[in-house]
Amino acid sequence: MTTNAVPSSILIFSLILFLVGAGCQHREQEAVEAKKLSVVTTLFPLYDFTKNIAGSKARVTLLMPPGVEAHSFEPKAGDVLKVNNADVFVFTGQYMEPWAYGLLRGVDKRELVVVDASKGITLEEGKQEHGDHKDEKGEKDRTGGSHAHGKIDPHIWLDLANAQKMVANILGALLTVDPDNKDFYRKNADAYIMKLADLDARYKKGLFACKKNIFVHGGHFAFNYLAKRYNLRYISAYPGSPDTEPSPWQIISLKKKIRENHIQYVYYEELIAPRMANILAKETGARLLRLHGAHNISKEDFEKGVSFLSIMEENLKNLKVGLECQQ
Fold first, then answer.
1. Contacts of 78 (CB under 8 A, 6+ apart)
2. What is d(CA 49, CA 327) in angstroms, rounded to the nearest whole number?
3. For 64-106, what is each residue's pLDDT tens digit?
4. Rounded to an integer, what distance in angstroms lies between the CA atom of residue 115 and that of residue 94?
């Protein structure tokens, strides 16, 4: 009995040591995590930009849950708590997230660094090339709602030159809050900006020699900055938020544009049923392609690790198809 008891005692003692060691290691990991910067971002591009800059030095959180359409998002009480516990809060600007200022009024953490990522970027008015839409009675169509952007187009990240400025704005905040890791942040930001600049160059080259320079989008007016950057003509089904509906007059005008310009593809947007794009395609014989606004991504794409760069690469591929560019 004594002989058998010795190995059992050793086994139990070893197990205790293992559990104690594992517990210590877990607590050490928790301590390391607790020391990291906490950054809360609103939209997916800001989340991905910050992750690429901060790397392992920060815990970066996307306030908007994956799969939620950006224009229908309303912050909850728990979101105020997340921001209150953060060191840095990053948002696009007052025109994209008008709710951000109300959220920040509920935050009592005075040392929170707030980053308006649109700082230094010239904001454009959201004007379509064909001017004001009118309904059958000749009255201007007033679309919008609580999430309409008004006259200003806030989708600045879809111009890759603007995206680089947004990265620089986020970098500036991280350098202020955590100067001890300034070299790490600068190196990562420089590398990421180079990737954005390379993709921008590929857009310019890929969209230069195309049979068409106009594209029709069966969603809300989100791609104005992209179109201007690459000298394209752009028409969307409706201004404002995706919750708005184009009038019958607008639909007639869009179908006319598609036929006049012999457009073979109509683009639809992410996270929203492509009802209007389907109508336009069905009634004109066009086909459908996705053009991703990158406001947010699906839960599945988030788990797969889809990035802003991969989204924009897919957009370039689909634009080259729709514009009949040289491959």
1. none
2. 29
3. 999 999 988 999 999 999 999 999 999 999 999 999 999 999 9
4. 11
- C-alpha pair distances (Å), 208 with each of 55, 202, 267, 324: 35, 10, 20, 11
pTM of the predicted model, to two decimals?
0.85
Q: What are phi and psi of 173, to 5 degrees?
A: -70, -45
Which sign, positive or negative, has the C-alpha torsion 315, 229, 251, 296?
A: positive
Q: Return the closest-CA partner of residue 54 out of 29, 82, 90, 24.
A: 90
Residues in the chain, pLDDT under 70: 1-7, 20-34, 128-150, 239-243
How remote is the C-alpha of 191 from its chain's centroid?
Answer: 20
Domains of the chain, with CATH numbers?
33-201 (3.40.50.1980), 208-322 (3.40.50.1980)
In degrees, rounded to 5, the angle at the alpha carbon of residue 284 between the alpha carbons of residues 280 and 287 is: 75
Give the ranges where the chain is alpha helix by DSSP (H). Answer: 2-35, 44-54, 77-84, 100-105, 160-177, 182-206, 224-229, 248-260, 275-284, 299-304, 308-322
Give the strand pairing for 124-125 and 152-153.
antiparallel
The residue written with tokens 């639809």 in the block is 268
Closest to 35 (Cα-Cα) out of 180, 188, 189: 180
